[in-house]
């Protein structure tokens, strides 16, 4: 039986616990496709899983990684929508085709094995075909799976973004920069916050947002955001910091606006936790937890980025070797990047 290289975390204390194995290339079942992985996109979640800081259950000896793009190399006998050679991406949660997630442990690279392998077999129902005319690289396509669907879900999942509205994204990581691209494509006014003038300058050069706020120089960035929106407040905010930034987000949001709760790692003083319920009530705001999104959203996202030929910034690509993958984890954890860190699988 043919062999492939697969990476697993037999223990999860440090990134260097990542271990390479030679395992059999899977044989697709009747309803599956076999995919040759071409690129894997890393997320903050991957770093948390690798160091046992992720708040949900993790499979023992897990194959890491949730975001993959590749080529179909074999189809099961019952599969009729895919053919050998199709470029594809795989949904984050293979069991979530529509609606809310059934649980928090079905995401690839966490509660089930992920995509850090040369070949993966997946149910055809969890796979999205990339139109032949799509200009995006495999790394760009892989980045749509987690950060792309998260951004899409935040902007369109409950109260769809409308042209002329405003969107504020926190930081310059993958989800925020993907949301920035989508918001600009929708005709929204865009605001980016960061603590680094250097990063904000690069964001201006790469993405041309309408406004940038350095929150170390402008601590009351919420008031500045309200000012920039003519006193109205922001229509959509992607909340990356969690408890540490939610009070400012609620101050910045417009009446009836939507805050997508995505991250939770910002530092905060437990003695100064804001009364979130009262603040949300005062703004009639929607605070909505975002756990990526269903496969149908990935389908819609792929359709949009293909038709509009949207491009996404890949900060750096690493090789599919243990040393390079560990380096990719360190690069992501450093927080110095803008956009995405990816691994190219040859």
UniProtKB/TrEMBL annotation:
Native source species: Penicillium steckii
Signal peptide: none
A GO term, aspect molecular function: oxidoreductase activity
Positions of the Enoyl reductase (ER) domain: 13-343
Gene3D superfamilies in the record: Medium-chain alcohol dehydrogenases, catalytic domain, NAD(P)-binding Rossmann-like Domain
Name listed for the protein in its UniProt record: Enoyl reductase (ER) domain-containing protein
